[in-house]
Amino acid sequence: MNHRINPRVRRGLVIALAFLLLAGLGLAQSLEDKVREFDLDNGMKFLVVERHEAPVVLGAIVFNVGSANEWPNVTGISHLLEHMMFKGTKMVGTTDYEKEIPYIRKTDELGEQTILLRKEIGEWRFVRFQDFGKEVITGFTDEEKERIGTSRYEQNRLLAEKVRAMDPLPESLTAVPFLVEDEGVNYLEKYLAYEVAWGEIARILDEQREYMVKDELWETYMNNGSRFLNAGTSTDFTMYFAYIPANRLELWMVLESDRMDTPIFREFWSERDVVMEERRLGENDPDDVLSEAFHSVAFTASPYNWPVVGWMSDLQTIDRQELADYHRTYYAPNNATAVVVGDIDADQVRQMAEKYFGPIPAQAPPPPVETREPDQRGERRVTVEHTANPKLMMGFHKPTFPHPDNLVFQVMQSLLTGGRTSRLYTSIFEEQQLTAEAPRVYAGPGQRYDNLLMIEAEPRHPHTLEEVEKAILAEMDKLKTEQVTDRELQRIKNQIDAQRIRQMGSNIGIAFQLAIGQLYLGDYRAMFRMSDQLKKVKAEDIQRVASQYLIPQNRTVGYRIKIEEKTGAEGPTEEQKAMREAMMKYIQTLSPEEQMAIFQKFQQAGKDPAAREAFIKELVERARAAGFIKSEEKKEE
Fold it and tell me: Which of 226, 242, 230, 220 is nearest to 340 (CA)?
């Protein structure tokens, strides 16, 4: 069993919870009295709520760091660190940490060598050499493939041996000026040294695994009755949480303080490969492709400009020391808030917190994000092409907390898409039937810094992106010229009350709101007053804000237009596309080691149609057995 869910789903879950929080899901005033707050001497904050309905506890730790805290050259490091935090510590995940140290040092040395070699080679050469290397691997004999198996070490050694034995080199290399050699530097030899070094890293990791206990953190939690163990990275924060039996609270304290204090980023270099493969999958995801292009145009200075998963070129150069330094800065107790909700005694929680988290030293406060997005001075547009159905993204720059207009935008969001009686649902989706489903309106991509009022919609065939955009803008213009009715405002106020009551019904609902409220608002108590403030928003406030912000020069529009995908004479059928998506979801549930083995086997299969087909069929059966492919999809394999 693997502790990760689909990374896009995981990030979406955390961001959605933050959005729901900031969309007015308040807590009743009576709950405020139940929150016990205390700070440890090292600056770590604890928020505790006793709820004795069931013998369970939700423990969550939120670190005040997300992709917005990154900078060019290390984008994606927050998400990479989240992956590495499940790799164990000096105590967890190992039978003898001291014996692991030489292996870690050696892989770090080789990893640094690969980074340097790739820079020296130059990316244009590297891509050509890598394609050539894949062709050589494809040409391995059946006997060689059988001998190599899944060993990257043996594969890369044989690759280097065969290329070095070529005399002369193929024309595909020699015909390109300055490719193989330039001014006495043999770049092909540097590439082979790069591949041999990666093979050596894989071999050393295999030896190190003799001392590793795979997924010990996960198994320890599960064997003690835990459920819903997970983590998520967003633009603004990183969160780790788990449901545990009430009598296992001390175990949670032990494990979480341990990985805050002494994490060991074992298997860093192979796990970094897994994260880069996740990045590659995102580059093929139609929603990610549009979103990344859109935000890179909508923001010119704000760190919301780059994706949470980071840019590939940055992931390729991050090393283990950079990760350790980043952890030391941002995973300090004085940059963390813990929330404990459930069948516990608050005094006991404090005693345990002081015992296990108290000794962890504080660090210097992390540097603040001071860059702010300048005013936009004209409409921006971006278009991406994809084989997926067309999609519209539209965003208007807006302020966030503590600006009072942010409250007006929250009411406006409910007005536009808050249920089946909302304006865009009834007008765009039901009456005009312009979209495949109701448009979405939300604030994003983050909530800490000035962001966007976002609208997303997919046209229903045969309607076009232009038709949908025009209709949505017409509805937005009505907010400027026509006052919202008292009935609509009352509906939104009723929704706020109903949502408040629903959120009070679960440990996780309370925990998420307290933790993220503390981070975003600086004081969780502000959450208790938010719903009352939202109820004070008037029709004239909405009209004023719409007239000020929902204007062309403040707008960014993104189109995803559909192009035909060709596979031979014909493109893939809808059933084949569904099969491919199901396979991707299945692979993302596997362990990093299993994902890497699949990736390597695909590489080895190369352009051998029979080998690829056999392996794909094997994966299909595994995905079907795991419930990701339904029986009726079998005919289109």
Answer: 242
